[in-house]
Write a structure and sequence with these properties.
alpha+beta; two-stranded antiparallel ribbon
Amino acid sequence: MPSRPQEPDRAASEPVEPVPEGAARPPRGDLPQPGPPPRPEAANDEPGPDAAGPTPAEDEYTTAIQELEDRWRRALADLDNLRKRHARELERERTVERSRTAAAFLPVLDNLELALTHAGADPGAIVEGVRAVRDQAVNVLELLGYPRHAETGVAFDPARHEVVGVVQDPDAPPGTVVEVLRPGYGDGERQLRPAAVTVAKRE
C-alpha cells in the first residue's frame, strides 16, 4: 500500500522572529500578530474650553452684538433717507419762495412797461409814473418782510445805518442822521442792507 505524501510542516514554513537571549520562546502557535500601534494616552482626558461650544452667556452676548449692529445699520439708513428728503424739501421750498417773490414783482414790471409806453406822449407824466412804481416796489418788499428805512433826524444806529460822511450842521444834534443817500431795507437778522447816511459832527 503506497504511503501518503507527508504534508509540509506549516509551522516550519512560517517565519520565526528572533528571540533575545535569555527570553522564553513562545509556543509556535501563539506568535503575536501585528496590530495597530497603541493610542497615546492624553495628558488630560477632560475636554478643552472649545470642545463643548460657546456657553449660554457667550451666545447671549453675540446675539446682543448682532442686534445692536442691525439697529445701527437701520439708523444709518434712516438718517441718510432723512437727509435726502430734507434736501429735496428745502430745494422745493426755495423754488416756491423764488416763484412767489417773482410773482409779487410782476405788477411792478407791468407798471414800468406802462410808464415807458406813455413817456413819449407826455414826458412830464413819466416822473409821477416812476414814483408810483417805486412806491409799489417798496410795498412789495415790505410785504416780504423787508421794510424801507430812509428816515432823517433820528439818532445814528450802527445796526441800521452805515456812515458815509460826517457834516457840520448847527441845527442837528451831534450824532443825528442828516441825510439818507441810500435807503436801507429790513431789520435785525432779516436786514438786506443798512441805510447809507451822513451824520452830524460831534463838537
